[in-house]
Every structure is written in C-alpha cells, then in structure tokens.
Amino acid sequence: MVDTSPFDLAPDGFDGRRGALLMHGFTGTPYEMRPIAQELVARGYRCVGPVMAGHEESHVELGRVHWRERIGLAAGNLERLRGDCEQVVVAGMSMGGLVTLALAASHAPDAVASMGAPLWLPRSMRWRIPWAKYVRPYAPKSDGPDIREPEARERHPGFDAIPLAATHQVLKLQAHVRRVVSKIVAPSFIAHGQHDQTANPRDAYRIFGEINAGPRELFFGRRSGHVISVDHDSEECAKRMGDFFDATLRS
Predict the structure, then answer these.
(1) Helices (H), 108-163
(2) Which of 102, 129, 199, 251 has the fewest CB atoms within 10 Å, counting from its CB?
C-alpha cells in the first residue's frame, strides 16, 4: 500500500520563503512526486502535490477533461501558493512536465523542472488516436508502469485503463507546449530516464534546446525508465533538482 493522496507538506517553522508545486503524470497519482517533495521539504520548501484534473476517481473521469482545464487548475494552485510564498517553483512528471512547461511560458514561476516530458507521441499514435477513440474508447495498460527498479514497479499505483479521448487531449497539450516552449525564461531543470520507453529521451534535448533564456540543466537517469521520480535514479534526480532550485533562487 502506498499513499496516493494529494499533499501539502512544509518543514517545521516554515518561513514562507519558498514553495513548490509538484504535478504527477498521466494516469498517475501524487505518490510519484513524494520523493521530490521529501527532498525539497528538507531544504525548507513548502510542497503542494495536487491530484491532476481528471484523476480524482477513475479513468472514466480522465476522458472528460480538456487539456486547457489541466493548465487552468494547475495555474490556480500556482497562484494560491504564490500568495503564501515569496518564491515558487514548479515541477512535473510526464504530462505534469508538459503542464509545467506550459505554466513556465505563461505564468513565469521562479524556476521549473520537467521530468520525462513527451513533446511527441509515436507517429502511429498521432495518426490513429483521433479516430480510434470512437471505435475503442478505452485501452488497457497491460505492460505495467515504465519503471526499471523491480520493487518500485511492483508497488506503483495508477489506472488500469486509458481513455483514448484523454490521450487525444495529451496530443493537443503537446502541440500547445511545442508552440510556447521557446517563450520560457525561467531557470529550467530538464530530467529524463535514459531507458524511457514511454517518452523519447530525445525530447529532453529538444526542450533544452528550445528554451532560449535563463539557466538550464539537463539530467539523464542512466538506470531509469519513464517515471524517473521513483525509479533507480530517484534520489539523485531529486538532489540535483534541489541543488538547481537552490542555486537559481539564491541568484
């Protein structure tokens, strides 16, 4: 059993200086962002990990959410955190990484981090999904999570099926992020699992190259699959991200 609930964590005697909005991935839960939160709380950050729009109950609700709703609800969380903290960073895993990049382009957080953000899905999916959703509304997740660490893979929670309508919305979110990523000026930490079978690791290079301003760091987890935040390189990824945030916020 793991804790899949949303979280709002802060260190004892929190001074209100730094906050972090942490967003999980497609069909995932806030659980996958808890290792990042633990590292940042230890550094003095207040960490908020909401349930992403459409993920509240089951995969059925997931298929009813428009991609703009995900950005809008995340932006609301960001603004509430800004009301309590002097500096706010945003980090996201996979689809949460896409939302993070969208917020970075439009809402200018103090720093951002994306992990395993997929700028493109395979061409066959991009062609098939828009019409296949009417023929086969749901696709089972038969292969399990894209995690290489056996115990983490075994315990990882998530939905058992994917609404193809929701996947179509991910395609639209990707197109939006590709349009706006060059507008990002916030310091950016880009992480990706080197053995990712879900999002092409080349997308990390593309994101890194498209961001034209601000300090940037690129980190590849050499032993990890897609969900790098809980895989073999989880601890190193969290530490490197924390170091990056600390350094850029100080400057």
Answers:
(1) 123-135, 150-155
(2) 251
Q: Do 226 and 147 touch, CB atoms closer than 8 A?
A: yes
Instruction: Say how far apart CA 8 and CA 21 lie, in whole Å.
Output: 9
- Using a 10 angstrom Cβ sphere, with 0-12 exposed, 13-18 middle and 19 or more buried, the burial of residue 56 is exposed
Q: What is the pLDDT of residues 165-192, one digit of tens each?
A: 788 889 999 999 999 999 999 999 999 9
Q: Among 173, 164, 228, 170, which Cα is nearest to 197's?
A: 228
Asked if residue 75 lies in contact with residue 104, where contact means CB atoms within 8 angstroms, the answer is: no
* pLDDT tens digits, 20-54: 999 999 888 999 999 999 999 999 999 999 998 77
Considering Cα of 96, then 208, then 188, then 33, what sign does the dihedral take? positive
* Tens digits of residue pLDDT in 82-99: 999 999 999 999 999 999
CA 103 vs CA 21, 49, 63, 100, 117: distances in Å: 11, 15, 22, 5, 14
Contact 42, 19 (CB under 8 A): no
Q: Decide if 134 contacts 111 (C-beta within 8 A).
A: no
- Only one residue has tokens 């032993």, namely 223
pLDDT at 179: 96
CA distance 102 to 90: 11
Which architecture characterizes domain 7-250 according to CATH?
A: 3-Layer(aba) Sandwich (3.40)
d(CA 22, CA 90): 6
Read off the pTM.
Answer: 0.93
Instruction: Provide the token pair at 162.
Output: 């994917």
